[in-house]
Amino acid sequence: MSAILECRALTKKFGSVTALNNIDLTLERGKIVGLLGPNGSGKTTLIKLINGLLVPTAGNLYISGMPPGAETKKIVSYLPERTYLPDWLKVSQAIDFFKDFYEDFDVNKAYDMLKRLNLDPNKRLKTLSKGTKEKIQLILVMSRNADLYCLDEPIGGVDPAARDYILNTIITNYNDNATVIISTHLIADIENILDEAIFIKEGSLYLHSTVDDIREKEGKSIDSLFREVFKC
Amino acid sequence: MLKKLIKHEIYATGRILLPLYGITIILSFVNRIMIGINKFNNTPLNIISTITMFFYVFAIIATIITTFILIVFRFYKNLMTDEGYLMFTLPVKPFQLINSKLISAIFWIIISVVVTITSLLILLLNAERVTIIRDIWAYVYKMLKNNFGDNYVYLFLEMILITFISIIQQILLIYVSIAAGHLFSGHKILGSFASYIAINTAAQLVSLLVLLAMASFTGSSFEKLEKLPHAILIIAIVLCSIYSILYYLATNYILSKKLNLE
Amino acid sequence: MQWDLNSEKPVYLQLVEQIQAGIISGKYRPGDKLPSVREMAAQAMVNPNTMQRAMSELEREGLVYANRTAGRFITSDEELIKQLKKRYISQIISEFLEKMEQLGLNHDEIISLIDEISKNKGI
């Protein structure tokens, strides 16, 4: 099974609110995919479903042919939008934690990235700034050799230098067996690194195409198309 | 995986509890010394020993209360707030998360009891008192044997078992209440308290009904009276176990199928 | 290598053009070894597949060749590079001449203006 993600008629409702409506989506391996849409469009819901943090109301989804569960969590690396590490941990303890639970975690890569960013592994997370905490979470997530990376708003609220570093990390981590899903509304900054773009509009799949196709067919950038499609 | 979760659990909670337990033990030594010094009627020293006794009592209370609060708070913070994003994306099943916390909670409750008893012994034990304890123990033993015949051993075991199971039941009741509170869309903590009261009340009602039913069956024949504590304990153990299993299954169901982290 | 990419045109084409410009200007010398696709993609902040596509296009044109063990190299074929340079220059001159035509200048006026301005610039 070569497709890393397959969604069939995937639907998620919260009470009477439909967050995701009948999503049919297939993602192949070795792609960097942008999951694009305004806030509240359903992007985060889809990512939570992929990571087993939500259960579908209807329909199915499969990661590497398996429904979300302990087995898929072994091959999916998730960077949520929030700080999710316990505050009292030291950076080195956070690394140990990941090493303990994830077989595919590369400790050397993690310490390498820490060094390059001049981050002290002995500091407690509680003493670090929000931006630094986010960088550390990114390092932990990207130090795994996962099959699917889900990055939820990795560059929002981060300074331009850090943004470049994050994009650089994503590019240099690329391997043709793994797929990276980047969920964001800051499209101009990332469109050059995307293979494919997915537009989610009000819980439905509006568009899924390669970036090149979009530029050739529409004659404009993904960012411009986005502004058109999601005009207020 | 479970071992790793337990290890992490014990470390996360122990970093708060162990210093507290340590202080309690140290204070019990300090107070024992101060009690000895008290015999010299030196007023400044008397004042100091009163203060240290105050701290000691405070420490004992803190030991018990903190252990309890930490068990509640740990489950909530680690699973139902932002940290839940970390825990529920680990390659483990939700029931393993519950198990690790349950085992850690039982562990610390046992330790806290041991610490409390040890500190009291440190504070108060001397040769004379050991004899008193031995006498009390012998008396209780004779009482049990006389009143309940050869079954006294079973009775004793049943009492240990019910203590153990009711601790487990209490912990699981807390967990299921927190999980149930999570289902509310707003005021989740309030929802947890409400759930706790509702479930606990329901459980006690059921227990009462069962006991009443049992009482109406046995009537008041004297031969049965000997077996009564025995029967009550067995029923209690069974009910407690059933409640524990129900709370566990409900918690697991909510965390597996109804999780919705903010 | 400074990359100047806009979002309107397919990125791989822009990469091809800018590498060609680099070859012409001498930034990439004949026989130079190129960094790995991933490194170049990271420098340009583009998708590695896109950089790969640009490389394949340049290989197709013969400006770049791949040695399976040693990596990718700029061609040593000076003749090919000269032709590329000529095509590039012809393109610039054509565009220039079109613009001059739009401004209403004839052939002689264009030549004498070029003489005057290049002398002032010291070219």
Write structural notes for this entry.
The complex is a heterotrimer of chains A (232), B (262) and C (123). Chain A has helices at 43-50, 70-73, 91-101, 107-116, 130-142, 160-172, 187-190, 211-218, 222-229; strands at 3-14, 17-28, 32-36, 58-63, 76-79, 148-152, 179-184, 196-201, 204-210. With 232 residues, chain A is an alpha/beta fold. In chain A, α6 (160-172) links the parallel β6 and β7. The radius of gyration of chain A is 18 Å and the shape is globular. Chain B is mainly α and 262 residues long. Chain B has two domains: 1-125; 126-262, no CATH class. Chain B contains eight helices and no strands. In chain B, α1 packs antiparallel against α2. Chain B is flat, with a radius of gyration of 23 Å. Chain C has two domains: 11-76, Orthogonal Bundle (Arc Repressor Mutant, subunit A); 79-121. Chain C has a three-stranded antiparallel sheet. In chain C, α1 packs across α3, α1 (11-25) crosses α4 (78-102) and α2 (37-44) packs across α3 (48-61). The radius of gyration of chain C is 18 Å and the shape is elongated. The mean pLDDT of chain C is 88. Chains in contact: A-B, A-C. At the A-B interface, α2 and α3 of A face α1 and α3 of B.
CATH superfamily of chain A: P-loop containing nucleotide triphosphate hydrolases
CATH superfamily of the largest domain in chain C: Winged helix-like DNA-binding domain superfamily/Winged helix DNA-binding domain
Shape call of chain C: elongated
What string, H for helix and E for strand, traces the elements of chain C in order?
HEHHEEHH
Mean pLDDT of chain A: 92
CATH fold category name of chain A: Rossmann fold
Distance between the termini of chain A: 40 Å
CATH architecture descriptor text of the largest domain in chain C: Orthogonal Bundle
H/E element sequence of chain A: EEEHEHEHHHEHEHEEHH
Percent of residues in helices of chain C comes to: 55-70%
The count of domains of chain A is 1
The biggest sheet of chain A amounts to: 6 strands, mixed
Q: What is the count of helical runs of chain C?
A: 5
